[in-house]
Design goal:
Largest sheet: 7 strands, mixed
Structural class: alpha+beta
Order of helices and strands: EEEHHHHHHEEHEEHEEEEE
Number of strands: 12
Number of domains: 2
Oligomer: single chain
Shape: globular
Mean pLDDT: 76
Radius of gyration: 23 Å
C-alpha cells in the first residue's frame, strides 16, 4: 500500500491506496484500528527512555559513540531519501525499497547501542526502576490521567516522528476490512530487534506480560512479572512502599501442566486468567491490583511454564477509599 495526501493548505488528510484492490483507505481509520497497539508501544518507548536509558547510558565508551554516529548518518540518509521522493526524483518502488533497508539498519543499530551499554553496574537496579515506573503509573491511573498522557505523547508527535516510532517496532501489519467498513487486525509482525530487546529486559525481570483480571463481572488489564526470584520481589516491594500503600499476597503454587489447579480460596471475588488457567483471590473494595508475579526462572519470555510455579499478587490501597 502507498500513502498519499489530499486536501488544501488549511485542511489536509492522508490515505492509503492498495494497488491490488484499487481501493482507498483513510489513515485515521487505520490508526484507530491500531491505536491500542500504538499506545502500548508509546508506553514501552517512554518507559525505556525514562527508566532504563538514563542509567544504561552512563557508559560513554567509544563503541557507543560510534554507534550513535552511524545512527545519525542513517537518519540523515532517510531524510534525503524522503526529500528526493517528495520532489519527484525517486519513483515509489525505489523509494520504498531503499527506505525499508535504512529502517532495518536503524533497528539493528539501536539494538547494538543497548548491547554497548553497561547494564551490570551496581547502580543499575532493575527492580527499583520497575518500582519507579509503577509508582508513576499508579498515581496517574488513580486520577484517571494515565491513558490521557499516553495519547498526548502520541498526538503531539509530528507525522515523521510517528512514522519513526512505528518503524522501530513494527515490520508489517495485515488488516482486514469487514463488511460494515471497519477494520480488524489480522496479523502484526514485530521487528526481530524489538523482540531481542524485550528478551533482554525479561532476563532482568522487568518486562510486563499482559493478562486479564475479572472484577465485579468486568474485565480489567493487569501486568504479570516473570523471571523474578524472591529477593528481587522484596527489593521491588521495598521501593514501592516508599511512595504507595502496597500489600503482597502469596497465592501459593500451581501446576500449569495439569487441567486443574490445586489451590482454592473462600469468598472468591476476583479471577485472574494466565495461560488459560484461572487463579481466584479476594480483594478489599479499596484494593487495586498493581501486578501479579510468577516466581520461577525461564530461559526466555516465550518459554512455556511446566510443573510448579509460585504466584504472588501486589496490590495498592487507593487514597480515595483508604481504610
Amino acid at each position: 500500500m502507498t500513502c498519499k495526501g489530499a486536501g488544501g493548505k488549511k485542511s489536509k488528510y492522508m490515505y492509503y491506496f492498495c494497488d491490488n484492490c484499487n481501493l482507498y483507505y483513510n489513515e485515521e481509520e487505520i490508526e484507530n484500528c491500531l491505536i491500542d497497539y500504538i499506545l502500548d508501544l508509546v508506553e514501552y518507548d517512554y518507559h525505556v527512555r525514562k527508566y532504563f536509558y538514563p542509567i544504561l547510558a552512563e557508559k560513554k565508551d567509544n563503541e557507543s559513540k560510534k554507534l550513535v554516529e552511524e545512527i545519525n548518518k542513517l537518519q540523515q540518509q532517510k531524510a534525503r531519501l524522503k526529500n528526493a521522493y517528495m520532489n519527484g526524483i525517486l519513483e515509489m518502488e525505489d523509494f520504498s525499497e531503499d527506505y525499508k533497508l535504512i529502517e532495518e539498519k536503524l533497528a539493528v543499530l539501536e539494538n547494538k547501542r543497548i548491547d554497548a551499554l553497561d547494564i551490570d553496574k551496581e547502580i543499575y537496579n532493575p527492580q527499583h526502576l520497575m518500582a519507579e515506573r509503577d509508582i508513576e503509573r499508579e498515581k496517574l491511573t488513580e486520577y484517571e490521567m494515565y491513558k490521557d498522557v499516553l495519547l498526548k505523547l502520541w498526538t503531539m508527535k509530528t507525522k515523521d516522528e510517528k512514522q519513526a516510532l512505528i518503524s522501530k517496532f513494527i515490520d508489517t501489519a495485515t488488516l482486514k476490512k469487514k463488511k460494515e467498513g471497519s477494520f480488524e487486525i489480522e496479523k502484526i509482525n514485530f521487528r526481530s530487534s524489538f523482540i531481542e530487546q524485550i528478551d533482554k529486559l525479561y532476563e532482568k525481570g522487568v518486562v510486563d506480560i499482559p493478562s486479564m483480571i475479572e472484577k465485579d463481572g468486568k474485565l480489567e488489564d493487569i501486568k504479570v512479572s516473570v523471571n523474578m526470584n524472591k529477593e528481587q520481589i522484596e527489593d521491588y516491594l521495598s521501593a514501592l512502599k516508599e511512595e504507595l500503600n502496597v500489600n503482597y499476597m502469596d497465592l501459593g503454587e500451581y501446576y500449569f501442566h495439569d487441567d486443574k489447579i490445586d489451590e482454592s480460596y473462600d469468598n472468591k471475588t476476583q479471577v485472574a486468567k494466565i495461560r488459560d488457567k484461572h487463579i481466584e483471590f479476594k480483594l478489599k473494595k479499596n484494593q487495586k491490583v498493581i501486578r501479579m508475579v510468577a516466581i520461577k526462572q525461564y530461559k526466555n519470555y516465550l518459554a512455556k511454564p511446566e510443573g510448579k510455579i509460585h504466584l504472588g499478587l501486589v496490590t495498592h490501597t487507593t487514597s480515595k477509599e483508604k481504610l
